[in-house]
Amino acid sequence: MTEQETRVNESQADAEGVQGTDKSNAPKEVAPAEYWEARYGSAEQMWSGRVNQVLVETVDEFDPGRALDLGCGEGGDVVWLAKRGWRATGIDISETAIQRARAAARDAGLTETQANFRVADLAELAADERFDLVTASFLHSPVELPREQILRRAAAHVAPGGHLLITAHAAPPPWASDLHDHGSGGHGSADHSSEDRDSETHEVPRFPLPQDELAALDLDPEEWDTVIAQTRDREAVAPDGAHVVLTDGIVLVRRRAAAVPQ
Ligand SMILES: C[S@@+](CC[C@H](N)C(=O)[O-])C[C@H]1O[C@@H](n2cnc3c(N)ncnc32)[C@H](O)[C@@H]1O
Predict the structure, then answer these.
(1) Total number of domains constituting the chain
(2) What letter does residue 169 receive in the DSSP assignment?
(3) What is the pLDDT of residues 177-213, one digit of tens each?
(4) Is the shortest distance between the CB of 36 and ligand 1 below 6 Å?
(5) Whole-number Cα distances in Å, 64 to 49, 60, 83, 259
(6) What is the CATH number of the domain that holds 224?
(7) In the 8-state DSSP scheme, what is residue 209?
(8) Does the Cβ of 98 fall within 6 Å of ligand 1?
(9) What is the rounded distance in angstroms from the CA atom of residue 87 to the CA atom of residue 68?
(10) What pTM, to 2 d.p., does this model score?
(11) In this structure, which residue's CA is closest to atom 12 in ligand 1?
């Protein structure tokens, strides 16, 4: 298995959760904190601990500043950012995930100034701090998640000259094809436009494409530039060990720097 394949392998389970092919599907009425706490509590480690590939490809050349990772999970992205010189903050609703993220940062020799983590519900976060980079990697959930509202508010966290990066599943993984047959739905956020009903009775999940994300962000074109809005394929390993290709949606927008008075 190549390095790239092992690195992307972590998102199998991720996509699985989004797709609801995880047969332990929680009903939507389960409280998000309860759902994610139970999910993290069900395994010693949920993700690989490695950074998401899109973050590396996108941010590597940026000058480090302050970074915020929304739904940071076990902290792989925050630890990578902090090692690159960013003062990085990760927020997640799961106490267990945050404990693991803190342990990962300590193991990497990072101080709390370099990598800090908070347990919080992003739905209730006030946009009172500014960051040079706000990133959200696979911020999907099979239970209540006002994702579009959170991402719109995330833009308000971006400092002038800073970036907002959103990486999302843009297509169901190949192993989730049974979803369409059984209409199990279970996709992501409850406020999401992603669940269309077909002419029969089946719910067919539709994933956010970059143009959907941009439309939902509704950014002022006088203030923001779109740097990337594209889908990108990457190799992954399916739960049955098959080598597959997953499609990510990537949106990178930049808030224009404030004009310097003449
Ligand atoms: C699919 S995982 C992605 C984790 C991580 N970003 C990654 O790429 O490995 C989604 C994460 O969002 C978190 N999450 C879901 N709803 C949340 C909310 N309302 N507030 C904060 N975090 C939330 C979950 O606990 C989980 O860690």
Answers:
(1) 1
(2) E
(3) 644 433 322 233 222 222 332 323 234 456 889 999 9
(4) yes
(5) 21, 9, 10, 21
(6) 3.40.50.150
(7) P
(8) no
(9) 9
(10) 0.84
(11) 71
Q: Does a structural domain hold residue 38?
A: yes
Domain that holds residue 54: 3-255
Nearest Cα residue to atom 14 of ligand 1 = 71
**DSSP per-residue string spanning 81-102:** HHHTT-EEEEEES-HHHHHHHH
Protein residue with its CA nearest to atom 27 in ligand 1: 73
* Residue 39 within a domain: yes
Assess if residue 53 is contained within a domain.
yes
Q: Is the CB of 136 under 6 A from ligand 1?
A: no
Q: For residue range 210-250, what is the model confidence (pLDDT) as tens digits?
A: 999 999 999 999 999 999 999 999 998 888 889 999 999 99
Q: Is 90 in the pocket of ligand 1 (CB under 6 A)?
A: no
Residue nearest to atom 4 of ligand 1 (CA): 73
Report whether pLDDT(9) > 60. Answer: no
Give distance in angstroms: CA of 163 to centre of ligand 1. 20
Sign of the C-alpha dihedral computed for residues 118, 225, 218 and 247 taken in this order: negative
Are the CB atoms for 218 and 231 separated by under 8 Å? no
Within a domain: 261:
no
